[in-house]
């Protein structure tokens, strides 16, 4: 029994169907039959070898919802049949201080779902049990995939840093990540501002939970406003205006994978005790908290569905920013 994959044979190439041998789960792994897989901007970066860590043929896809169909010898066979989600990280060492301390996403021996491994644009994918998250009752499997990379990426700055519900939170960029960040921050109890270059999205941003919508180029007119700015944009910003918009002890949390340095003056940090942080997705514990939080607050990614054999159409449209707000490819 072989499996099918959608793979790029070289950098930037379209995905073509292929077959590979049946997957053999390691002792602590399980095999998911892929039902749905979201398309994340990091898939494009990996396809193009933008970060210099891609190997080809490359099978992208790391926002998976699948059914457990097989387990390794160290995994309870009772899990077979469960629906589980899988994101960017598919394994960690389980015995270092980070893993043992509940911050396994900071483990030095991380395995990423599409780095040196076969990802979720496929009929099946393997991952360690600990990094696959059971879908709680009440969660729609067809829309859940984007939670496991984009969603947890923007939930992390709230849950892992214990943001106060009285905080005023700004979200820069109303796209795949930003539209989920608005929902999380609103449900967290915060006052929420969406900052965008495209005010045509203002009504939708309010629908996702923004109390206020502001043009990004007006940021300089909002000094001292925000306790937390979550930046989902991967391009250079007017950093002095971003820092100036932070309240005393306010924090810029960077999630957009910009390659250029963030230029910030020392006095932007010193005078109001401001800070800059970032984070790579989050831990299995925070993933478990996130899915329960989503069900409790009716948070769901806004998705556009296409069948898996139209993956190249989804990639082309994502490259142009033409998606509201996340593509999910469905198994065929
Ligand atoms: Zn570890
Ligand atoms: Zn991703």
Task: Please tell me about this protein's structure.
- The chain has two domains: 3-149 and 291-330, Medium-chain alcohol dehydrogenases, catalytic domain (Quinone Oxidoreductase, Chain A, domain 1, Alpha-Beta Complex); 161-278, NAD(P)-binding Rossmann-like Domain (Rossmann fold, 3-Layer(aba) Sandwich).
- The chain is 23% helix and 27% strand.
- With 332 residues, the chain is an alpha/beta fold.
- The chain has helices spanning 41-47, 97-100, 141-144, 150-159, 178-188, 202-207, 239-244, 266-270, 284-297, 311-319; strands at 3-7, 16-20, 29-39, 64-71, 83-86, 89-91, 111-112, 124-128, 132-134, 168-172, 191-196, 212-215, 226-231, 246-254, 275-278, 303-307, 326-330.
- It is built from ten helices and 17 strands.
- Strands 3, 4, 5, 8, 9, 16 and 17 form a seven-stranded mixed sheet that branches. It has a six-stranded parallel sheet with strand order 12-11-10-13-14-15. Strands 1-2 form a two-stranded antiparallel sheet.
Can you tell me the overall shape?
globular
Low-confidence stretches: none
Strand segment tally = 17
Give the N-to-C terminal Cα separation: 17 Å
CATH topology name of the largest domain, in short, is Quinone Oxidoreductase, Chain A, domain 1
Please estimate the helix content: 10-25%
Relevant CATH superfamily of the largest domain = Medium-chain alcohol dehydrogenases, catalytic domain
**Tally of separate helices:** 10
Helix and strand string, N-terminal first? Answer: EEEHEEEHEEEHHEHEHEEHEHEHEHE
Molecules bound to protein? zinc ion
Strand content: 25-35%
CATH architecture of the largest domain: Alpha-Beta Complex
For the biggest sheet, the summary is: 7 strands, mixed
Number of domains: 2
Broad structural category: alpha/beta
- CATH domain class name of the largest domain: Alpha Beta
